[in-house]
Design goal:
Aspartate Aminotransferase, domain 2; five-stranded mixed sheet; binds pyridoxal-5'-phosphate
């Protein structure tokens, strides 16, 4: 054996791609075999089966390695057999999108070079590609020429970074007043968590009431701001949601933007889910007012069919990134910057940051706005079809009409507690390996959710899914 060992080969360099190809073919064959071992989006059985199957492969850190191909093929097969497959039409619990093959292939290329966006000398091509992607998405908002942005790990990091910039902005005028953040009662939990991390305090986030359509009420927002001022607090930021995680509800962005401007508060729009509507000419008007925001978070691993992670934070004005600017001797220096060696360190809370923009750039070029928009439209239509099928079932009750691509409903049992029956029927479908459907709560009651993100799902597959829910409900009745 050589010092490096025959299987410890690198993916990059002159011979790297050839070695990678040698490994990719058997890995993908193992994925095919593992997928064929289950008959649905997950294998039937107990929740602990996956851990047992992984453990059965032997020691996670053996003294002597098994070799690249064997380790890869064995683990890839078990991984695929025990995965929850987002490409299966009955995998509809979360904003868990089936990634496009072209994007996965591009992601392999990004991994080969392991580019890191914190410095130019690790990532000249990645820096160019990320800049291009951010500019294209900013035009879609549409933001003006001054706009800028950065790739993030997702909505959570976009919300954290948006609120960090808001906090820095507010500090300039707040004096010694406590800062307060406002979001809707149905905003993502990462808003509160970010406020905690940033020292604003989770208790200093007001969850503003929503209207009958689960959109933030502008009147309630005005009242909450007035009350905060009366307590001597400074309204630092309003976080509007464009696409809540369950219902896809979109807050009235234009009205909220006017209130933010009056209050002198930063407006961050969490468009992690609903931002995908920007690709659809039919649905884009739902996001009217988005361009009034100071910062916007979009997630292309949701309605964008990218492998995780593909978050994007866009700023109306790139100068607003200033609080993140750093001169770090070992990463970026002014003279290098002046000579054109631009580093993107000053746009992110992270240091090492992978080239997630490559897969997005390839996808946007491959499909164009129209192509991505058609995928979004198709999922929207599927949600309405699912709602119609649910309404046609006497034992199912639709909670609200779909807005984007999710449908919330519940099973109405003949006897017993509806909450318990709905919770159990979801687990029955998991145990049988038939479907992965979502579970949530409204007004303290348990509801079920279909998040339709597979644009290739057929009417027949949708029907089978709804029938399976009813059957599982009857079993639990
Ligand atoms: C509205 C909204 N915001 C933020 C997030 C968090 O996104 P991520 O999981 O990509 O961090 C989600 C996740 O589903 C979401 O639905």
């Amino acid at each position: 054996m050589t010092a490096l060992g025959p299987d410890a080969r690198l993916a990059g360099g002159v011979d790297g791609p050839a070695h990678l190809l040698e490994l990719l073919a058997p890995a993908l064959e193992a994925v095919r075999k593992g997928t064929a071992e289950r008959s649905g989006p997950l294998p039937a059985g107990r929740p602990t089966d996956a851990a047992d199957a992984v453990r059965a492969l032997g020691d996670a850190l053996p003294e002597e390695g098994a070799g690249a191909e064997r380790a890869l093929v064995e683990l890839a097969r078990v991984f695929a057999a025990h995965a929850v497959d987002p490409a299966d039409p009955a995998c509809v619990a979360h904003l868990h999108a089936p990634p496009l093959a072209v994007a996965v292939a591009a992601d392999v290329v990004a991994s080969v070079f392991n580019s890191s966006l914190d410095s130019w000398d690790q990532a000249p091509s990645a820096t160019a590609v990320e800049t291009e992607v951010v500019e294209a998405l900013a035009r879609l908002v549409p933001f003006g020429e001054a706009a800028s942005g950065v790739l993030t790990s997702g909505g959570t990091e976009s919300n954290l970074t948006g609120l960090f910039l808001a906090r820095e902005h507010a500090r300039r005028t707040a004096g010694d007043r406590r800062l307060r953040v406002f979001c809707s009662a149905e905003a993502h939990f990462s808003v509160q968590r970010s406020a905690g991390v940033l020292g604003i305090g989770e208790d200093f986030v007001t969850a503003v009431d929503v209207d009958a359509d689960h959109r933030m009420s502008p009147a309630a927002l005005r009242t909450a701001i007035a009350e905060a001022r009366a307590r001597g607090e400074a309204p630092a930021a309003i976080v509007a949601t464009a696409g809540t995680s369950d219902l896809g509800a979109i807050d009235p962005l234009r009205e909220i933007a006017a209130i933010a401007a009056e209050a002198g508060a930063w407006l961050h729009v969490d468009a992690a889910y609903g931002g995908g509507a920007l690709f659809s000419r039919r649905l884009a008007p739902l996001l009217d007012g988005l361009s009034e925001a100071d910062s916007v978070g979009l997630d292309l691993h949701k309605l964008g069919w990218q492998p995780v992670a593909a978050g994007v934070l866009l700023l109306r004005d790139g100068a607003l990134f200033a609080p993140l600017a750093r001169r770090v001797a070992y990463i970026c220096n002014e003279d290098d910057e002046e000579a054109g060696y631009t580093s993107l360190l000053g746009r992110s809370l992270r240091t090492t940051r992978r080239a997630d923009a490559l897969k997005i750039a390839v996808t946007l070029r491959a499909l164009g706005r129209q192509g991505v928009g058609e995928l979004v439209d198709r999922c929207h239509v599927l949600a309405w079809r699912a709602a119609a099928l649910i309404q046609a079932q006497p034992r199912l009750e639709l909670f609200r009409d779909p807005v984007l691509s999710s449908v919330v409903f519940r099973y109405l049992p003949e006897r017993g507690s509806a909450d318990e029956v709905n919770a159990r029927l979801r687990r029955t479908l998991l145990r049988r390996g038939r479907a992965v459907i979502g579970r949530t709560e409204f007004g303290g009651a348990v509801y079920l959710k279909l998040t339709l993100l597979n644009p290739h799902t057929t009417e027949a597959e949708l029907r089978r899914l709804v029938d399976d829910v009813v059957l599982a409900g009857r079993t639990e009745d």
